[in-house]
Amino acid sequence: MSDFSELHRMLTDRLDLRAVGQHDLDALHRINADPRTWTHLPEGRHASLATTRDWIDRAAARWHTDGLSYWTARLRGTGEVIGIGGAQRHEPGFWNLYYRFDPAHWGRGYATELARAAHDAAYRHDPDLPFIAWVHAHNAASRAVADRLGLTDLGLRPDPAFGEPMHCYADREVGVLSRRAGV
After folding, report:
1. Rounded Cα distance, 31 and 145, in Å
2. Mind listing the pLDDT tens digit for each residue in 115-139?
3. Most buried among 26, 84, 88, 137, using CB within 10 Å?
4. Which residue positions does the secretion signal occupy (predicted)?
5. Are 74 and 82 in contact (CB under 8 A)?
């Protein structure tokens, strides 16, 4: 397993990825409160600053418990916060890809760039765990990111967190994924 310090900040061609923290609250709330970022899952939208604050606390804590979590994504040239994402360890034992970007920056390949960094970091930290992107069938943009990342669509499966059928894109074959069953 990798040391936390080498993963908490990563640079890609265009992004400066830094472990998420409360110093990013206002920018991340703006992104998470924007209904355009939640068209695939409207109930996920952050309606209050307190929701974003609690969400950041949980994500930041995962750096210390699991060694990897979400980064705040900034443009390398300007430092502007344009998104958040990364990989978190989920039960029953896989890396879960997550990202959300300001709609003003959609369509420029930032999600793919962040997703590649997340996959690399997850593999360096614990290569024994599968890397998975759970994607709603109607979320064509996220399905395209998973394809560009080279993940295989294993079909519709129940998402372990919520039980709803979603496309399971993975970097390897996986068995049954539920909170009660192993990978």
Report:
1. 19
2. 999 999 999 999 999 999 999 999 9
3. 84
4. none
5. yes
Percentage above 90 pLDDT, the chain: 81
Paired sense of beta strands 131-135 and 94-101, if any: parallel
Please, which residues bridge with residue 133 across strands? 169
Question: How far is CA 98 from its chain centroid?
Answer: 2
Task: Decide yes or no: CATH 3.40.50.300 for domain 4-170.
Answer: no
Task: Quick: pLDDT tens for 65-100.
Answer: 999 999 999 999 999 999 999 999 998 899 999 999
| CA–CA dist 167, 141 (Å, integer) | 13
Give the residue, 182 or 35, on which the prediction is more confident.
35
For strands 94-101 and 81-90, give the pairing.
antiparallel
Which residue, 53, 63, 54, is CA-closest to 86?
63
Other Cβ atoms less than 10 A from the Cβ of 115: the count is 24
Closest by alpha carbon to 113, among 6, 7, 15, 19? Answer: 15
Residue 174 has a CB neighbour count (10 Å cut-off) of: 19
The whole-angstrom separation of Cα 56 and Cα 75 is 20
Helix-helix angle 49-66:25-33, to 10 degrees: 110
Residue 15 near residue 102 (C-beta atoms within 8 A): no
Residue 180 has pLDDT above 80, yes or no: no
Angle, CA of 172, 176 and 180, to the nearest 5°: 130
